[in-house]
Amino acid sequence: MTIAQPLPSYLVQRYHGWKATAYQENKTWYRRLASEGQRPRAMVISCCDSRVHVTSIFGADQGEFFIHRNIANLVPPYEPDGDHHGTSAAVEYAVTVLKVAHLIVLGHSQCGGVQGCIDMCKGKAPELEAKESFVGRWMDILRPKFDSVADIEDATQQARSFEHQAVLASLDNLMTFPFVADAVADGSLTLHGLWTDIGEGGLEYYDPDAGRFIAV
Amino acid sequence: MTIAQPLPSYLVQRYHGWKATAYQENKTWYRRLASEGQRPRAMVISCCDSRVHVTSIFGADQGEFFIHRNIANLVPPYEPDGDHHGTSAAVEYAVTVLKVAHLIVLGHSQCGGVQGCIDMCKGKAPELEAKESFVGRWMDILRPKFDSVADIEDATQQARSFEHQAVLASLDNLMTFPFVADAVADGSLTLHGLWTDIGEGGLEYYDPDAGRFIAV
Amino acid sequence: MTIAQPLPSYLVQRYHGWKATAYQENKTWYRRLASEGQRPRAMVISCCDSRVHVTSIFGADQGEFFIHRNIANLVPPYEPDGDHHGTSAAVEYAVTVLKVAHLIVLGHSQCGGVQGCIDMCKGKAPELEAKESFVGRWMDILRPKFDSVADIEDATQQARSFEHQAVLASLDNLMTFPFVADAVADGSLTLHGLWTDIGEGGLEYYDPDAGRFIAV
Amino acid sequence: MTIAQPLPSYLVQRYHGWKATAYQENKTWYRRLASEGQRPRAMVISCCDSRVHVTSIFGADQGEFFIHRNIANLVPPYEPDGDHHGTSAAVEYAVTVLKVAHLIVLGHSQCGGVQGCIDMCKGKAPELEAKESFVGRWMDILRPKFDSVADIEDATQQARSFEHQAVLASLDNLMTFPFVADAVADGSLTLHGLWTDIGEGGLEYYDPDAGRFIAV
């Protein structure tokens, strides 16, 4: 039998608060979205981290953003081997079915996944090296980029640079998907790399000409 | 070279609106979250669908919810084969590192992924059967549950029931992860199955005693 | 023969500037809007005044706002007499065809139309009294509300109050349209009264409980 | 009592974004516009359609364009009968009070109003024939021009040609206003007919010598 508990009452209260306010305010729009289907303009790939303000930053929850969240906002390379690939499935659906106009990778400061990868690369996290470590095997996606930040001595600077690299790794891997590359080539899709500072509320975007992240 | 464009200006405007209001209002809290780390009370697994009100329903974006979003809010079974498993990595991180108290699977109405699985099971979506279809291979996770809804004639009812089954399949698969089963066994973690009606703003939870979903 | 001149070159330059930037940035979205049709969430009725920031305030020009602009943002009462009624046609199309969720009347400071109506009511604008004066006859819509501000001595205060009244007159007249009243009654449409201060960039909304305009 | 709701919160966020950026950037200019009054160089008559890029195309919202927007950018003929004529009032104010130098009629592709008129002319829209249909009675302004496009077999071509005719009908009707004809005659006002392709971002102007619309 499926194991489950009722919703904790602190969440029941919040739900009713939402129902009486935001839902009430947007009822007509939500009903139209339900009956007519979604038509999101952008897909956002961000981290699961509870501190990432992905929806509030852009005013989401209104049908405009198709949102995939995983550890460290990573996209694995194209690998059509018949296995379950959740991130690849989300990207495929957004680009080929929903035909979003923008694909945004949103990284962030103080990322635990990125820090774990640094620890692993420095030989300080043997538990993440185990074959059974899902987090370790997931962060393997970012591992090849460590060389580019290995020499940075300041730990905060190194983490920040590696968080930037995580965004770039995802953007680069996105281009290995034929349907992404095709949509970018024919001009129907643009890619965007962002990084947000959780504490300061800052937002930076990657500028390929400058070769670095620049404040919005 | 990494391919990327600057952030579209309509999103720059929204970011600045957030910065001047929600960020300003919560600045002190966000800074504490940045310096002291996240301590989310719950993990939510929901769909990427742009119409799912996951953050607004519970007032998220404030450090309380570790959120993983994928197509059809699915959790694959435990499979420690050394490959990249994004969903499994997110669950592992939430349960073993963050030690969340609640693990919530949130399904929803009008789910395109679930509908695609129905079409596939009825032999009406050959393109999803292809080995290269990431969406098809991802929805394979739900496929074994189709028998339980195959006889429902009304298409809307069948979709709704299968959306419910997607939540139950995820809950069942979660229990195949040793660290989840252990945390549930020692009482440090509870599992919750929810389903929300996008248009009506309704919320239902799975009640194992009743064997069905009940309105909150 | 139709009389017309080519576009002045200063506007040709601006067009090319837009084409190379904002259009380029939003090309995919604009193409989808063209092929799939508009689905605006709100209608805005504002003034023709060149200083009203209606589109930039809300980030319009992206398919979200159906915008009608006329002198003093007025809506005449329901009058299905078979004549040409541009404002009534726009409201009818927005509510019955596009089924917008919100109908927003946006008034503003320093409104020339409202000032003309004050002058007319004070007997200081005989030219506006002429049957041939389109502006005078249009401002007749607001005239019955003058009693409520006639006693205000300070000219600036009086103008501001009458600008507020123009918004309320439009909201009241909107409710005389059967299809507006029906949509409001069944909860599928909400009405909103706003007023913006051009110089200060302020924005106020009408609060029926308070019986006055309140800063956003 | 006047019926109204507060501004939906997604628009409050956008307003604050504008206030913190575009307003801040242009504050001094906006204050001058408020204290010294508007002095627009041109009037634009365009459609209410949410997809028409009227302000962004020319960089409006800065005091330069007096903008009237109605269904299908139509101008009715001169009819000083004492009734409420919103479009005529806007034209009168722009030409006689503001003394704009240019009067621009901007048509566009995929125009729902024009399509409705085609349906009506082909006997396929009985609901638009009703006396109570404001949209139908408004589109009567364009109806006499249908003969010129009736023989075009391709539906897209026919719609495009009729959209062009809507611009010409408005230009012709503008010349029936004595104050417009006078200003054109003494060289203080020029008329311009434009048509924009929503998806492609194209812009065409009417050339009377060529007798057709030509790309800018």
UniProtKB/TrEMBL annotation, chains A, B, C, D:
It catalyses: hydrogencarbonate + H(+) = CO2 + H2O. GO terms for molecular function: carbonate dehydratase activity; zinc ion binding. GO terms for biological process: carbon utilization. Binds 1 zinc ion per subunit. CDD domains: beta_CA_cladeB (cd00884). It is an enzyme of class 4 (lyase). Keywords: Lyase, Metal-binding, Zinc. Zn(2+) binds at C47, D49, H108, C111. Reversible hydration of carbon dioxide. Belongs to the beta-class carbonic anhydrase family. This is Carbonic anhydrase. It comes from Cribrihabitans marinus.
